[in-house]
Amino acid sequence: MKKLIIVSILALLFTNCAENPFTGKKTLALVPNNEILPMAFQQYNQVLKENKVVNGTKESKMIKEVGRKITIAAEKWLDANGYKNYTDNYQWEYNLIESEQINAWAMPGGKVAFYSGILPVAESETGIATIMGHEVAHALANHGQQRMSAGTLQETVGAVGAAALSGEDAEKQEIFNVAYGMGSQVLVMLPFSRKHETEADKIGLTLMAMAGYDPAEAPNLWIRMSEASGGGGQPEFLSTHPSNETRINNLTKWAEEAKQTARQYGVTSFK
User: Fold this and answer.
1) In DSSP terms, which residues pair with 113 in a beta bridge?
2) Mind listing the pLDDT tens digit for each residue in 245-256?
3) What is the C-alpha to C-alpha distance for residues 158 and 153, in angstroms, rounded to an integer?
4) CA separation (Å) from 95 to 132, 148, 204, 271?
5) Can you give the pTM of this predicted structure?
6) C-alpha dihedral (217, 93, 73, 28), degrees to nearest 10
């Protein structure tokens, strides 16, 4: 019975995969996009209803324009690499929300939000492009779908383990539940999330360069982000995101490669 369950889980993994267009690697897709995207669009609209959306200002117009440029760059890359209809079901939208939070995020299907609190850290149009590239990359790489799928798998494996120990005493069951909960989070889910953030950083760097923004400026954003957060934070292995230092080092290392890629698509200057 246990072997049958394991085989079933493996079959589920291998038959429910998508492909990341930027890496060519197979990714978890236990929850299909035709279910995820309508939910994401609905949730995004709900967020806009419950918050003050800034319109008509220089900053809000800039966010929409930068989003448009980054999206054009992304679709140019996708078309050139055999993914011409990849974003057909996306509904790109970029909004500025009035909030002191230093944050920006993207939902599956191209819904992006900036909080006004991040604008002083972004500092410039290029800083906004760095953030926008990262968020658009999350949407394009289907990171939301992967996180939902990983959560589903985590719950499934935990339930299988609990069922296998159902005949054991309560203490053993409790030990398993605690150990599995902590272990799967620290050893699997958090590294999975950090990998997505690193992937979005690298893809976003290329997209901002293809949109005409200087990727060499991206590390400076994270220097400012580190200063805004006081340079503190929990250890990287307990975080959903790489440390600021890791991001700064990675972006510095990848900047020239992003420029070279952009030049291959006809970009001759960067601002």
Assistant:
1) 95, 105
2) 999 999 999 999
3) 8
4) 11, 24, 18, 23
5) 0.82
6) 90
Q: Point out the catalytic residue in the list 65, 93, 100, 135.
A: 135
Res. 182: pLDDT tops 60:
no
Say if CB 66 and CB 132 are below 8 A apart. yes
Residue with tokens 């398993």, as numbered in its chain: 176
**pLDDT for res 230:** 72
Question: Would you tell me how many other CB atoms lie within 10 Å of the CB of residue 7?
Answer: 10
Active site residue 135: yes
pLDDT of residue 148: 72
Q: Which tokens go with 63?
A: 């966010």
- Of 5, 28, 6, 8, which is closest to residue 16 (Cα–Cα)? 28
Report the pLDDT averaged over residues 94-99: 98
Provide the token pair at 66: 């930068």
What is the per-residue pLDDT across 40-61, written as a single tens digit (0 to 9) for each?
A: 999 999 999 999 999 999 999 9
CA–CA gap between residue 140 and residue 76 (Å, rounded): 13
- Counting other chains too, the contacts that 122-125 makes at CB distance below 8 Å and 24 or more residues apart are 122/221, 123/221, 123/224, 124/217, 125/62, 125/66, 125/213, 125/271
Biggest distance spanned by C-alpha atoms of the chain? 68
Report how far residue 8's alpha carbon sits from residue 5's, in angstroms, rounded to the nearest whole number. 5
What integer best gives the mean pLDDT of the chain? 83
- Rg of the chain, C-alpha, whole Å: 20
Which neighbouring-strand residues pair with 93? 111
Q: Would the pLDDT of 185 be above 90?
A: no
